[in-house]
Amino acid sequence: MSFRTVDNAAIDEVRDFRQAVRDLRAASRGGFDLDQSADQAQVVFDRGMQLDRYLRLRTGRTSVDADLAEIRSDLHRIADAYGLSVPY
Fold first, then answer.
1. pTM of the full structure
2. Is residue 23 part of a domain?
């Protein structure tokens, strides 16, 4: 019998980050109004970078690879659109 611990806080954070990305997409009108959403983009970007670091350090497991890949993809899209720098 194996037991698996679930990090509910991490699950909630990933869900909240995904919602923040959707909200940013809506605020930027699908990328057509970046000037009006630049501050929101910085907040979402910073939050995503913190989440990425947290997940890598906390889990160290491959089971979160799909979530990390999606988060990183979102971070790179935000960075490209708003001229932000991804440190990796």
1. 0.67
2. yes
